Amino acid sequence: MSDPEETGSKMTPLARNALGVLVVSCVVLTALEFVIHRHAYFETEGRPLFFAVYGFAAFLIVVGGGVLLRKLVMRAPDYYDTQEDNDA
Amino acid sequence: MPELLLPGLMMILGAALVPVLPHMIRQIWMLVLIAASAYQCWHIDPGVHLTASVIGFDLILVRAEAITRPFALIFHIAAALNVIYAMHEDSRMTAATGLAYAGAAIAALFAGDFITLFIYWELTAFTSVFLILAGRNPRSFSAAMRYLLTQVTSGVILLAGAVVLVGSGIGIAITALSAETLGGALVLLAFAIKAAFPFVNGWLQDAYPEASVTGTVILSAFTTKLAIYMLALCFAGTHMLIWFGVIMTLFPVFFAVIENDLRRVLAFSLNNQLGFMVVGIGIGTELALNGTVAHAFAHIIYKSLLFMSMGAVLYRTGTAKASELGGLWKCMPLTTIFCIIGAVSISSFPLFSGFVTKSLTIGSAAYEGYFWVWMALIFASAGVLEHSGIKIPYFAFFGHDRGFKVNEAPLSMLIAMGIAAGLCVAIGIAPQMLYSLLPYEVTYKVWDAGHVLGELQLLLFAVLAFAFLIVRGLYPPEIDSTVLNTDWLFRKAAPALWRMMANPVMRLWHAGLATTTRQIGVAMDRGTHISRNNYLISGTATIGAAAGLFLAVFALLLALRYMM
Fold it and tell me: Which member of B454, B469, B474 has the closest CB to residue A51?
């Protein structure tokens, strides 16, 4: 669905480097989970890697929800530029 | 000086001179007015400072609360940034109305009663509509009219609320109100419209992106935050606001995913950020209210910065549509950097302003044990990252290179964006400057290592999800389209309903009209026929017949006069 030029097979060197830094950062943050104590207000929050899993899942849900919403609310660019709108 | 002149008034009155001044003198004049007004407002301590009795109403013309100073300060900063940002253009209308609009919003902050507030409330509407008209196309004209209708309606409802409050003996002073009384509910509805609550939010995404490049930046700062300020004064601790706020944080993130116009994406993002503030007001504790005020302060800066960067893109390329943009970092590197600073600030990355302000609100939800509210706010934070943290900079400056060969943004735009970006970093690194302005002492440990770790995990793993979708080719493409919003209700549904109800009546009317016309035609034909045969009405009547007819009519009139 993304532009083919942006997908993994045709990534620019800059994009590859950025992705590498991101992956390493996530690995480091995962390791720090077992070093730094996180004060939890709720039991769920105290579970290992709660924020990592929740952040990853939330992002996918937001994008997936948007794709579903598109089927419901997406119209042509000139949808409002009609006589009905002018009458309103 | 504070008591001699109403706050904001020098900006409102000074705006009258703006259209007649030469370009550079105009800029200096506006900045001097803003600085003088800021100096005046800074020295107004909490309390009632000026009252007046007008036709039986005791008006409180100048009153400040503990939260007034931070709001007044950030409104002045925003007004100054707007002037600097717009220095490259020569639109006298935008300059004058933008200054008057900011002045009216500042004046409204100091209003102590609902009548005074109503006047400034409507003045913000009537001045700001010109910023949308400055878009100078049929779409912006239509959007401006809808915007004005919505804003004026909000004012009328506010006035109705004030009347009910007076009638119920509560009075017109702006004070804590109950949403369960009619007067309180009306006032809440008026504030809710301007704060873009769910179902009354459509005006925001409809109007702001249709304004001029600078108009949208100016609009983003004042109206909605004035409503947040008033909500905090009147409805702090109103439980239902928590859930309204939660909905406000959530629904815009889904719309922002599929919106193609990046300025409209930012309008959805603005709505989402207002949701965090409304949640804080609903919780109503000292920490939560500190969070709302701090968030509003930081939000005005980073949201302005993001609108400025998209404005610069629109100014240089002629489009703000994601489907038409990409690769601009090569031609507009400084704008790219400033946009990224705005993006990481709104996403709450540590060391940037969003982190040290939004954390207070989310922390207050955790403190008070609102588990599902807290879960929703964390979820919405990942949503903010999606649309403002990634989508805006990625599709405008990176992504698919569209081969634009444009210049960097004008110097005035760069200076304004640079100052805003500097403030985002300064607040993020040294939040105590902002915390000292808040109404209550801040004891929340925002730099707790565990908190920082959790925030970084949330954000970077969300970025990882984005990278996963891009690499796998699963991220939805940007499509030039119209995304239906709640303004559809009065742009399409209401007219259609009106036509449906009016059609039977109109059919009856046209049938009656046709029958009447036909009958009149028949009667006239008959009269003509009689006239031609008897010379009674027209034709070549004899003098005797004409005199007889005249006498008959005269006698009839005399008889009628006698009877009456």
Answer: B454
**pLDDT tens column, B52-82:** 998 888 899 999 999 999 999 999 999 999 9
Residue B471: burial class (beta carbons within 10 Å; 0-12, 13-18, 19+): middle
Amino acid making up residue B111: A
B240-265 mean pLDDT? 96
Radius of gyration from C-alpha coordinates of chain A: 21
Q: Are B479 and A39 inside 8 Å of each other by CB?
A: no
Give Cβ neighbours of residue B312 (< 8 Å, ≥ 6 apart): B213, B332, B335, B409, B410, B413, B417
Alpha-carbon gap: A26 to the closest alpha carbon of chain B (Å): 7
Q: At what angle do helices B223-235 and B262-283 cross, to 10 degrees?
A: 10
* Residue found under tokens 């001045």: B127
Nearest CA in chain A to B498: A88
Q: Report the C-alpha gap between B45 and B48 in whole angstroms.
A: 9
Q: What is the pTM of this model?
A: 0.88
DSSP for residue B8: T
User: B496 contacts in A (CB within 8 Å)?
Assistant: 84
CA distance B226 to B246: 20
pLDDT digits (tens, 9 = 90+) for B411-452: 999 999 999 999 999 999 999 999 999 999 999 999 999 999
Question: How many angstroms separate the CA of residue A23 from the nearest CA in chain B?
Answer: 7
CB–CB contact A55 B462 (8 Å): yes
In chain A, positions 42-61, which contact chain B (CB-CB < 8 Å)?
Answer: 42, 44-45, 49-61
C-alpha dihedral (B459, B462, B468, B474), degrees to nearest 10: -140
Domain positions in chain A: 1-36, 41-79
Q: Assess contact for B361 and B279: CB atoms under 8 A.
A: yes
Say how far apart CA B349 and CA B70 lie, in whole Å: 23
Q: How far apart are CA B216 and CA A84, in angstroms?
A: 27
Closest CA to B339 of B317, B315, B307: B307
DSSP for residue A6: G
Name the pLDDT band for A4 (thresholds 50, 70, 90).
Answer: very low
Stretch B24-53: mean pLDDT: 96
Task: Report ipTM (2 d.p.).
Answer: 0.89
